[in-house]
Amino acid sequence: MDGLTSADLQGVLMFVEDAWAAAGEHPFPLETLQALARLIPCDVIGYAEMDRVARRELDYVGNAPDTGDDRFWEIVDEHPLCRHQLAYADFSAARLSDVISRRRLVNSRIFADWFRPAGIEAELEIGIVRSRVRTRNFVLERTSGDFSDRDRAVLEIVRPHLARIYAMSELRRAVSDERSAVGEQDRVAGLTPRERDVLELVAAGLSNAAIAERMWISPGTVKKHLDNIYDKLGVANRTAAAALVNIHR
After folding, report:
1. In CATH, what number is assigned to the domain containing residue 163?
2. Does the pLDDT value for residue 180 go beyond 80?
């Protein structure tokens, strides 16, 4: 923490507290990114989760304009920071200027095709997981001037906190999914044996007439059973009801 002032450390503590408070369904809502941009001044900031094997963006939050341009995958292999991360599995806070000289950068194709058109002069990046396959990175960019040693140190300090926020968000999501699945199982378990038989035949694709013939009951009785099933399961039709059976088989 050499070079950081007490004000810097106080700012880090406030940001971490705000980031934990803001985390919800998404671990990093835009307000968290905006708070990070106040802690480390920048013009563009984003959080991106990428599948580097399938070459697709899984998640993005940030203030970059949506241009509908998917050129990132065309230039990613030449991006100095991306190349550094993948080569060394080093996702610590790093600036463009840490991995490539200014002269080489401005003479590169990626600068001409990517940075210059966007007006970007400097970039600072961290990854919160050590994975070459599925990266989860924060990217900060400036249109003028480089990031300082202070900026890089501050971002490195908050990195483990961001990683823990992400991990806690994933745990909450898993618990929520499990509770939802258990709730669906409880609803199915609340059916009478006769209703469960009807539902199983619905899930097998049988029509009301076929179910009536199979169970030696009238089509009207099948319809009455289905009405009760829909009400107990909280669904509107046979497709949704059958889906609950198929999920838990």
Report:
1. 3.30.450.40
2. no
